[in-house]
Design a protein that fits this description.
Blueprint (H helix, E strand, L loop, with lengths): L2 H8 L3 H7 L4 E4 L2 E4 L5 E3 L3 E4 L4 E4 H8 L4 H9 L28 H10 L4 H9 L4 E2 L6 E6 L5 E7 L8 E3 L10 E4 L8 E5 L2 H13 L7 E5 L5 H10 L8 E4 L5 H12 L5 E2 L9 H9 L6
Parallel strand pairs: 11-12, 11-13, 13-14
Antiparallel strand pairs: 1-2, 2-3, 3-4, 4-5, 6-7, 7-8, 8-9, 10-12
Helix pairs in contact: 1-4, 3-4, 7-10
């Protein structure tokens, strides 16, 4: 294994890798903290786990946290197959929606979202019609496209379709600062509120819950952060702002410490978000939706 490749892996941007893998990180300045491990902190290419007395580079972390061997960790961080590692450094290509191979048969995605996630087929059919929901041909993963302010697809959030093994992530090359979003403009064609969720599935679950209550979402821009990402909140509020008044930030995140930390950080930066969380007994919006569907809760 070439020394250049190993060095490249060790210097990988560890927070960005983890965020794309779906790990919950909370950003404070130039540092990130793991939402589920209070003393686990990341800089660009290093980690410090104070409670365990551990520290190291990106390769060290994958070996420790994910129990990978050295070669697997290097391959994972550089994005190359073992047989290609001696050829040339890996370069992240810009995201291209046209390069994705979609399946015309979406039964796998629909079955997962209706049976495992309890989302109504009518909502899914609407999202498919509006090109907000696809199924990848090779992997059968669900693709949630990220549209920018000009309605151009600049990235995608992904979710697996196996109920026994959860997978979620971000397509490589997705544009920084954007998330999967669904828009409900008011009669004037503008938005008053930007609602932020931790996943596309939670976002869609929230839409169904609101419809059950006969509530309108007019004037609302709903955005998935695919985790807890302050940069998406800041970028969305700036990019989609109205000409005469700013968007009101509304956190619709999970009922956990990560959500509370996000609120604290945003307040410190004078964003002053409103809070709209799932009912107290539920961790997230999809859990609440499933409970409603099974008759364990009233809507």
């Amino acid at each position: 294994m070439e020394r250049q490749i190993i060095q490249q892996a060790r210097q990988s941007n560890l927070p960005m890798y983890l965020l794309n893998k779906g790990e919950k990180l909370i950003q404070t300045g130039n540092r990130y903290r793991h939402a589920d491990h209070e003393s686990l902190v990341f800089t660009d290419n290093a980690y410090y786990w104070n409670s365990k007395g551990e520290k190291g580079n990106a390769v060290d972390f994958l070996m420790s946290f994910y129990n990978m061997d050295f070669t697997t960790a290097v391959e994972e961080l550089t994005g190359q197959q073992k047989k290609e590692m001696a050829k040339q450094p890996y370069i992240v290509q810009p995201f291209s929606f046209n390069n994705l191979d979609f399946s015309l048969d979406m039964r796998r995605a629909i079955a997962y979202l209706t049976k495992t996630r309890s989302i109504d087929i009518i909502i899914l059919e609407y999202l498919i019609k509006c090109k907000h929901l696809f199924q990848e041909n090779k992997t059968n993963n669900i693709i949630f496209p990220m549209y920018d302010e000009n309605n151009i697809v600049v990235g995608a959030e992904t979710s697996g379709t196996l109920s026994e093994r959860r997978f979620k992530g971000i397509k490589e090359g997705s544009k920084y600062g954007y998330g999967y979003n669904i828009r409900y403009a008011d009669p004037q064609g503008s938005y008053s509120y930007a609602l932020f969720f931790e996943s596309a599935i939670d976002l869609i679950s929230f839409i169904e819950i609101e419809r059950m209550k006969n509530k309108t979402l007019a004037g609302c821009l709903l955005v998935s952060m695919a985790g807890v990402k302050e940069n998406i909140i800041e970028h969305t509020l700036k990019t989609f702002a109205n000409n005469f008044k700013p968007l009101q930030c509304v956190l619709c995140v999970d009922n956990d410490t990560a959500g509370q930390s996000l609120l604290k950080n945003l307040t410190a930066r004078n964003i002053n978000p409103k809070i709209h969380l799932p009912n107290g007994e539920y961790k997230d919006w999809n859990e609440q939706l499933k409970s409603i569907k099974t008759g364990e809760a009233l809507c």
